[in-house]
Every structure is written in C-alpha cells, then in structure tokens.
C-alpha cells in the first residue's frame, strides 16, 4: 500500500491522513489537521496505532520545535493518541483544550497545566495572524467536543461530525457516488450520536445553522473525506434529515461469530 500523504486543504492548511482497513467493505479515516503560518497548529494528534505514519506526515509539514499550538477537539483515543509525545517533541507548544478534557484525561496521564489554555465553545484564540474559533459541531459522541474554525482559510474542523465510511480512498466527497454519501452520512451520524433521532428538530436546525453561519469553504472531518464549498450545503442538509429516523442497526452476536470464523479461516495452519 502507498503510505498516506498529507492532503492540501487550503493555503497553509493540510489534512494528515490515515485510512485503516476495518476488515469490511467500508473504511473509516482517522484524520487530523496541520495549520501552518507564523505559529503552526496541530489540530488533534491521531491514533497511537498509526504513530509512525502520523509523525512522518506532520514532520513533512512542520518541524516539531516550531509548533506553537496543539488543539485537542475532544478526548477520544483516536484524537489524543499522540498527544503526550507531541507535548514532549513540541516544547514551545501550548495545548488548547478545556478543563473537562483535562479531568477526563487524568485517568491516562496528568496534563502539564502550565502549558494549557482553556478555550470553550464560542471562544477564540490567535495563532500568529490567524483567528481560530472553537465551534461545537452539531453531532458528537463526547461532551467535551469542540470543532475549530480557521477564519483565514475558511476551513472548519468538525471533529467527528461529517464523517463518512468509504469503499475506497478519496480526497473529497465529490469523488464518491452520491448514494454512498447519502447512505453513509445518515448511518455514520446515527452511530456517532444515537440521540440525534430523538432530538428536537428546532434545536437541531439551530445547531446546524451555527456551522452554516460560518460560511465554511471546506468541512474537514476526522473520519471522512473533505467536503468542499460546492458540497457544503448538501452535507448540512443531510444532517437535517436525522431527527425522527430509526436508530442505526448495530452488529450482534451472530455478526461477531461470523467475523471470528472468517479470521480463523485466514489464519495459517498450526504446525503438526
């Protein structure tokens, strides 16, 4: 397989990519973002299982010693997998997170509070000449979640929102069959946020409207292809269909047994 390479998103903004094989017909990406400029920013730090590839891509874009900010969208393992190593290798970086994230990560390791800055939903910070605004996405699976809007480039980092399982690697959703985007988006968001089928439609529309009001040029997700300007309205409209839908189907014991059997069939024979 060709090693993953960073994908340019906008001037001085790159997606750091990984597309692990989930063992099925569809695969879900684990992405993060690097924002360059006078004070480079790492946006999430990927999964520990892909550490070597993650660092290879990051160091191809910015020297760790030059990184000034690390923004952590939430505390899921596929977003903070390389966080503590990044804090060691990026000695000038300030961690932008929240007090709640620090409390939740304390079970793993204590954050260096003297290097932290708490930025809550709706608040902003400046990285060199760039204004970066924390805006919670409509759909999320962790209460600490905040997205990040780069005012300079118009790129909105949506954390887990706008994720999309894909049958093959693509850069942006326009490269997929439209049915794949529709079915994948509706399934993904019901799995990510099971509560969304019961949410009040008026409040849900308002949550979607917060992102629409940013007028994003690109939606970048940790778990899907880029959504470029021409497809942003469609991606937002798909979210609007979620309230009132039935819950997403979940795998059960029969599915587990079938997967175990399939793995056993692929295993090399035991020597006599």
From TrEMBL:
Pfam families: ODP
InterPro entries documented for this protein: Metallo-B-lactamas, ODP_dom, RibonucZ/Hydroxyglut_hydro
Domain Metallo-beta-lactamase: from-to ranges: 29-223
SUPFAM superfamilies associated with the record: Metallo-hydrolase/oxidoreductase
Signal peptide: none
Domain of life of the native organism: Bacteria
PANTHER family xref list: ANAEROBIC NITRIC OXIDE REDUCTASE FLAVORUBREDOXIN (PTHR43717)
Name under which the protein is recorded: MBL fold metallo-hydrolase
Organism: Iamia majanohamensis
């Amino acid at each position: 397989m060709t090693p993953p390479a960073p994908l340019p998103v906008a001037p001085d903004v790159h997606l750091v990519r990984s597309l692990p094989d989930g063992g099925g017909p569809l695969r879900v990406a684990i992405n993060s973002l690097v924002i360059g400029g006078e004070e480079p920013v790492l946006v999430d730090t990927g999964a520990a299982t892909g550490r070597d590839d993650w660092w290879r891509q990051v160091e191809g874009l910015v020297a760790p010693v030059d990184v000034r900010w690390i923004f952590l969208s939430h505390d899921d393992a596929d977003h903070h997998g390389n966080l503590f190593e990044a804090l060691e290798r990026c000695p000038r970086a300030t961690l932008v997170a929240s007090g709640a994230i620090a409390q939740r990560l304390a079970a793993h390791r204590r954050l260096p509070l003297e290097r932290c800055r708490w930025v809550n939903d709706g608040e902003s910070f400046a990285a060199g000449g760039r204004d970066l605004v924390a805006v919670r996405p409509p759909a999320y699976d962790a209460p600490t979640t905040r997205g990040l809007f780069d005012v300079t480039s118009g790129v909105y980092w949506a954390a887990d929102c706008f994720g999309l399982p894909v049958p093959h690697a693509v850069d942006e959703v326009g490269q997929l069959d439209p049915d794949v985007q529709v079915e994948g988006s509706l399934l993904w968001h019901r799995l990510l946020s099971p509560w969304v089928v019961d949410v009040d439609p008026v409040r849900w529309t308002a949550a979607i409207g917060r992102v629409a009001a940013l007028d994003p040029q690109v939606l970048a997700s940790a778990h899907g292809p880029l959504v470029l300007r021409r497809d942003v309205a469609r991606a937002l409209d798909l979210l609007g269909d979620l309230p009132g839908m039935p819950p997403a189907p979940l795998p059960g014991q029969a599915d587990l047994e079938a997967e175990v059997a399939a793995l056993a069939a692929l295993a090399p024979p035991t020597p006599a």
